[in-house]
Design a protein that fits this description.
heterodimer, A: about 180 residues, 10 strands, about 25% strand, globular, B: about 725 residues, alpha/beta, Rossmann fold, Dimethylsulfoxide Reductase, domain 2, Barwin-like endoglucanases, 7-stranded mixed β-sheet, 6-stranded mixed β-sheet, metal ion binding (chain B)
């Protein structure tokens, strides 16, 4: 049993989209469905201007509203806290879509199943990192067990003062961001 | 570039963004459970290298039941470092593209082709080319490629076999100006040792947009070690998260900035005197000229304050030799302005003033291993062709790149009669497309080898389809560096289209038809074996590993004999003088200037596109569509003055044409220019996904060439913007 989480250091992200496409390939997604999306914010006025880049995907909340609102129990957490979707139980009602504050749920238009980032559970079970972590050109992402105080991720969250996105919502997300 | 904005409202809004559906996905959707539950899955992993850009990073291709599933990075590859960018991942879907060329074709009328057999293609092309060369001489034949393995070896060999010197790469519209400036000044293009540098200035080059994983990592490492990073660019590009400051320079004035920074080093005697006295010539002449270019002078030209210019020059001098102006590729001085060659010279000389050549944290000339050759007694080498090149009026440009943009003009003049073009798209990418088409149509024979019907292929006499990079063996690739590497591209999957033929066979068969078959009596495997033999590597070992690092590193701290005429840094250059140009670098105005009612049209890369080749990959063009990133960037103040709002549809109007495009209103761009990303504007109707997305800056670019570097000066273009429907 672990409690898997991720750290994303936005100061190392150049918005190259490598993670988005790697994830699409890993999961056999069509081009128009992506589990990772980006926000970009411009601050200041010319010439004193800067940008902030924010990659967002399923935050694998400890208290996931999508799971709470799923009428069939299709959305569930596995033993390691990874939030998954049982495609046999999903009826495509999209309650999860409207309840996710991170807009992380992605309806598959062919199957009707509402998918999302799965922390590449099958890679993780083999002891590897999720594909978005493995491919990140700037090594902006760290994956690991949040319950292990000696894991790289636990140490780096403290060192880099990483915080979750919209912690005020009470969802207890497990992706920590460095700004 | 992204335009989706983060706001509290969008974050809280409880609705999913719905995107328009494309009907075709090259990878069929299967849920992960289905993919992974299948225990009969036959999964193999084969090393090869990428073809999505010139970096050619090492890949591991994961093949499931004979079909490409995904790629990951080879940890040892010096450019990839185990990572793969968006282009690298998405390109792996191209074997299954519905737009693939599947059989050889011959043009029967304008825009009309008929399928032919390979035998007919070889025979007709061989016969015709032979006739043309007999009648007009071998100089009437040109070869053009975007230098990639196989083409890079077979092209020059084929040219030699027929007796032509006319080798051309795509550099005319990429790095020719920089290359020309650097080659004659410091004798080549070193790599910047960014990771160990303390002060890095980028002029137009953006690691966050023209992504090479190792470069991004090097810059992050430098930052973690306390380096100061400056972006000089009229546009705040996507290297911004890794930079400390942005100098929004007036477009086309980078040369003035570098001259003034050099002035500070010289007048304040902050340069590396020992290096200059030991390893350079002509410093006194340079010094006299550089005295004119004060920071006060440059402030008026560049819009960068003299205080900033002085501060940066002094701060760089403090940490020299661990400081640099990064060498760039195209950036702001590759093929960009009338003064780009001299910007290249000035940049190389500024680095020389810092004494950073072959120093840790500076400019390092990498090593290339000495490769073996085919046994001449069995495989005769054609004699080197020595006839004059068709671009002889550009004597300072390297023959390893050439001035390809001049070919249409030479074709119109009847000097060039035949062209063989492999996997590059001069019509769309080298200069104004109307001009290119008009010129290339005067050829008597135009043969294009490609995998899809590019704009160039669309006007060819013969179109010859290759298997994609995942379906063929290629000639090995050398990656020069502090520790050079040898990589191999090998067949990962069976051919998807049986009637495609790899380029090495196409060259060989055409040569046979011309009676030159003896020069091509070997296979790619035999060639590769011969090339790596002196390195003590076997082909099977290389095929198993994908990349092998040659552990014979460059000795740092030792300045090599430079490959200039004098063997030293040339502050005064005789070759330039002989060619009729100033032997000492000096200020030159850009060719055109916008007024208060117009803009300079500038361009640059996005991380998920290469040239216009990747725009037809559904996974990549979908990013463009999701984020509306084909839009034209315009400065917020200028937009407000013109009553334009973000997302408005405008018309871009130049002397040559009009383009309709939506605008991205931003503070990230200099008010005197508008920016369009360079990956769009495909007009071939056979490029289903790319066709009609965005526009190309080249559509608006008048045909003009920089007299020194032979580039089309792609930012020397003035446009007006007006709202559609007003």
């Amino acid at each position: 049993m672990a409690r898997y989480g991720m750290l994303i250091d936005t100061k190392k992200c150049v918005e190259c989209f490598g993670c988005r496409v790697a994830c699409q390939m890993q999961n056999g997604l069509p081009p128009e469905e992506a589990f990772i999306h980006f926000y970009e914010k411009e601050t200041g006025t010319f010439p004193n201007v800067n940008i902030q880049i924010l990659p967002v995907q399923c935050q694998h909340c400890e208290n996931p509203p999508c799971m709470k609102n799923c009428p069939t129990g299709a959305t569930y957490k596995n033993k390691d806290g990874i939030v998954l979707v049982d495609e046999n139980k999903c009826i495509g009602c999209k309650y999860c879509v409207v309840s996710c504050p991170y807009q992380a749920r992605v309806p598959n238009h062919k199957t009707g199943v509402v998918e999302k980032c799965r922390f590449c559970v099958e890679e993780v079970e083999k002891g590897k990192a999720p594909i978005c972590v493995a491919t990140c050109v700037g090594n902006a992402r760290i994956f690991g067990d949040l319950d292990d105080p000696n894991s790289e991720i636990s140490r780096e969250i403290i060192k880099r003062k990483a915080i979750p996105l919209r912690a005020d919502l009470g969802t207890k997300p497990k992706i920590y961001y460095v700004r | 570039m992204l335009t989706k904005r983060l706001s509290r409202r969008t974050f809280l809004k409880a609705s999913a963004a719905t995107t328009a559906l494309l009907s075709v996905g090259t990878f069929e959707f299967k849920s992960w459970q289905k993919i992974h539950a299948d225990e009969k899955t036959n999964l193999t992993t084969i090393p090869t290298f990428c073809n999505a850009c010139s970096s050619k990073c090492g890949l591991l291709v994961h093949v499931k039941n004979g079909r490409v599933w995904k790629v990951s990075g080879q940890p040892d590859h010096p450019f990839g470092k185990g990572k793969v960018c968006a282009r690298g991942h998405a390109l792996a879907s191209i074997p299954y593209s519905s737009d693939r060329l599947t059989q050889p074709m011959k043009k029967i009328a304008e825009g009309k082709f008929e399928p032919i057999t390979w035998e007919q293609a070889y025979k007709e092309i061989g016969t015709k080319l032979k006739q043309i060369i007999e009648k007009n001489g071998p100089g009437s034949f040109v070869f053009i490629n975007d230098p990639r393995p196989t083409g890079k070896f077979y092209g020059p060999r084929f040219l030699n076999a027929v007796g032509s010197s006319n080798y051309f790469g795509h550099e005319t519209v990429c790095s020719n100006a920089r290359d020309t400036g650097f080659n004659h000044t410091i004798g080549g293009i070193p790599g910047g040792d960014v990771a160990n540098s303390k002060y890095i200035v980028f002029i137009g080059r953006s690691y966050g947009d023209g992504v090479r994983p190792a470069s991004v990592q090097a810059l992050i490492k430098a930052k973690e070690n306390g380096a100061h990073v400056v972006i000089v660019d009229p546009r705040l590009n996507n290297t911004a998260p890794l930079a400390d400051e942005w100098l929004p320079i007036r477009p086309g004035t980078d040369l003035a900035l570098v001259l003034a920074m050099s002035n500070v080093l010289v007048t304040e005697e902050l340069y590396d005197k020992e290096f200059i006295s030991n390893y350079s010539v002509g410093f006194e002449e340079y010094k006299k000229t550089i005295m004119e270019y004060t920071p006060e002078w440059a402030e008026k030209i560049t819009g960068i304050s003299k205080e900033t210019i002085i501060r940066i020059a002094r701060d760089m001098a403090k940490v020299k030799p661990k400081a640099m102006i990064e060498q760039s590729w195209r950036g702001a001085f590759g093929s960009t302005y009338a003064n780009s060659v001299d910007t290249g010279r000035a940049v190389a000389l500024f680095n020389a003033l810092l004494g950073n050549i072959q120093q840790k944290g500076g400019y390092i000339f990498g090593k290339s291993p000495k490769l073996g050759k085919l046994d001449e007694s069995i495989h005769p080498t054609p004699p080197e062709a020595t006839i004059p090149r068709v671009d002889a009026e550009y004597p300072l440009v390297s023959h390893h790149t050439g001035v390809a943009a001049i070919i249409p003009q030479k074709a119109k003049e009847g000097i060039v009669k035949a062209a063989l073009i492999i996997q590059t798209n001069p019509v769309r990418n080298y200069a104004n497309p109307k001009y290119m088409i008009e010129g290339l149509k005067s050829l008597e024979l135009m043969v294009v080898i490609d995998i899809q019907m590019s704009e160039t292929a669309s006007i060819a006499d013969y179109v010859l389809p290759e298997p994609t990079y995942l379906e063929r063996d290629d000639v090995i690739e050398v990656t020069p560096g502090v520790k050079p590497a040898i990589s191999i591209r090998q067949k990962v999957i069976e051919k998807v289209h049986a009637n495609t033929v790899p380029a090495d066979r196409i060259f060989t068969e055409i040569a046979k038809e011309m009676g030159l078959g003896d020069y091509f009596n070997f296979s790619v495997d035999q060639l590769n074996q011969a090339m790596i033999a002196p390195l003590g590597i076997t082909l099977s070992e290389l095929k198993k590993k994908g990349t092998i690092i040659i552990d014979d590193p460059v000795e740092l701290g030792v300045v090599p004999k430079l490959k200039t005429a004098s063997g030293k840094v040339e502050f005064y250059n005789e070759s330039f003088k002989k060619a009729g140009f100033s032997p000492v670098v000096q200020w030159m105005e850009p060719l055109v200037k916008p007024d208060s009612s117009s803009f300079r049209l500038i361009t640059g890369k996005q991380s998920y596109h290469s040239h216009t080749f990747t725009a037809n990959i559904p996974y990549l063009i979908q990013i463009t569509k999701d984020y509306n990133s084909e839009r034209l960037w315009i400065n917020r103040t200028r937009a407000n003055q013109m009553g334009l709002k973000d997302g408005d549809l405008v018309e871009v109007v130049s002397e040559l044409t009009k383009s309709k495009i939506r605008i991205y209103v931003t503070d990230r761009i200099h008010p005197e220019c508008v920016f369009v990303p360079s990956g769009y504007g495909n007009f071939s109707k056979n490029l289903t996904y790319a066709n009609g997305v965005g526009f190309s800056y080249l559509d608006h670019l008048p045909f003009h060439m920089d007299p020194i570097g032979g580039t089309p000066m792609i930012h020397e273009c003035i446009v007006k913007i007006r709202k559609v429907g007003v």
